[in-house]
Amino acid sequence: MISNFMKKYFITQKMMRTVIISLVHLILSSIYFFGWRSLVLLFWVTLFGVAIEWIYEKKQGKKVSEAIFVTCILYVLTLPPRTPIWIAVVGIIFGVFFGKEVFGGFGRNLFNPALVARAFVYVTFPEPLTIEWSKAAAGFPGGFATYITENIEAISQATPMLIFRETGEMVTSLKLLLGNVSGSLGETSAILIILAGIYLIYKKVAAWQTMAGVLIGFTGLSGALYLLGNPQIPNPIFGILSGGFLFGMVFMATDPISSPRTKEGKWIYGILIGVVTVIIRGYALFAGGMMFAILIGNTFAPIIDEGVNYFKKLKKEDKKEVTA
Predict the structure, then answer these.
(1) What is the pLDDT of residues 284-304, one digit of tens each?
(2) What count of other Cβ atoms lies within 10 Å of the Cβ of residue 301?
(3) Domain range spanning residue 294?
(4) Distance of alpha carbon 214 from alpha carbon 233, whole angstroms
(5) Are β-strands 64-65 and 133-134 bridged in parallel, bridged antiparallel, or unpaired?
(6) For position 137, which CATH number holds?
(7) Quick one: which of 44, 78, 143, 274 has the fewest CB in 10 Å?
């Protein structure tokens, strides 16, 4: 019955279902670390996200794409646990409409709609998105026994990146790997995100070239600046394990629609994102940086592909001249 309903109203997309499967354990971990409110937030965001796409696609005589579920999940997992539901809903409406539908719907969007939504609420409602954080639960049953975990009052005790900016102290790698630190709903546990990345690469859904490019760009520049003694740049390992870096690298940067199509382009695109992330984290007002770095990468993705194809064409012409 559910299968017939999905086929009737949605465009079936096996790739999107694979991504959803890779996100299930992160949804569960968001409940464990921060409480059942994360599921409530996901419900309302998904409801309005699907609704806004359905309204638009119905006018075009088209079905809703299953990609909308991925967009909603990714967006929610980037939000702080205490994000007001109405703000989250406003964000997904903006992201789906202006980040996807105005470009013509699925497959035509220039920017990742989940990141468009996140950037919009971050800039428009900075206080609840940057100040209101929750402590991560530990032990059994963790957040499964509460609606939402305890509030963090001092900004110097909030997320790992904010703690580093305020005090210069770095949270231990073990805590960052396990995820029992404050942060956005699905971005705290490095191990779970890495496992998801391995699964997506195995299923050939996410481009490993993009992920490798991001790591190279980030590690190269942050490592160089760290060794030069720049106090604003933490060691690369801490930077990789915190600030939503891995989540953005695995799920956002690899979006097949808003990233380059060519293999060479994926490397260039990934390196660009990694480098820009370091610059934003170290010298801008934003503690994370990954979100804006990917959106900047999205802007250059078509140009990167054009450049790669142009040089390939020149190379072919040179070969023809040599053989002639």
Answers:
(1) 877 778 999 999 999 999 999
(2) 23
(3) 2-311
(4) 17
(5) unpaired
(6) 1.10.3430
(7) 44
Torsion sign over Cα 138, 75, 211, 11: positive
Report the run of H or E that residue 133 belongs to, with start and end: strand 133-134
Both tokens assigned to 16: 């999107």
Instruction: Grade residue 130 by pLDDT with cuts at 50, 70 and 90.
Output: confident
Asked, for residue 215, whether it belongs to a domain, the answer is yes
For the chain, what is the domain count?
Answer: 1
Return the axis-axis angle of helices 263-283 and 208-227, rounded to nearest 10°: 40
Determine if residue 289 is left, alpha or beta; phi over 0 gives left, psi from -120 to 50 gives alpha, anything else beta. Answer: left
Residue ranges with strand state E in 154-301: none
Would 77 be classed as within a structural domain? yes
- The pTM is what? 0.92
Per DSSP, the three-state class of 36 is: coil
In a domain? residue 320:
no
